[in-house]
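Hi, here's the filled form for the chain we discussed.

Project: internal
Contact: R.S.
Residues: 177
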Amino acid sequence: MRRFLDRLYSASGALAAICLAAVGALMLAQAFGREAGFLVRGADDIVAWLTAASAFFALGHTFRHGELVRVGLLLERLAPRGRRLAELAALGVTALFVGYMTWAVARFVYESWKFKEVAQGLIPVPIWIPQLSLVLGVLIFLIAVLDELATVLRSEKPAYQVAEEARRAAGDFSETL
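And the returned structure, exactly as it came back:
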């Protein structure tokens, strides 16, 4: 199970990177197209969808690697037992919030599908298709939060804490800037 979850988070991070690369490629195509006298139709719509997809696909991966904003400054000052309890409380609240968010966005996308909504831009695509990246990204984030909650419940260090300690041991203090 651990290998599957780690691959899921890595694949999600890779999808976010691919989306960002596609944004760059489309923007370059637009710039060169403008100079060459041709229009890349619908590129603005696609760039917007890819940007949103990259943000949501990155959530689970960045959370597991300790790259999301957390309450680390407060937690580091607590004794081990207090830290564990605070970590459990923070992860529990986060799991509830992200669980609700997952339900809400899934319902939103379902309604877009149900009512056959079409994108308002130049490309008449069913809007639920690009919106699906939001649901998948938030769902993977929820899985990552629940994964870390289970880890802390087993009295183990969460992956983001292990990653943070590894960065500090390597002399990388960039996240504290």
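Let me know if anything looks off before we file it.
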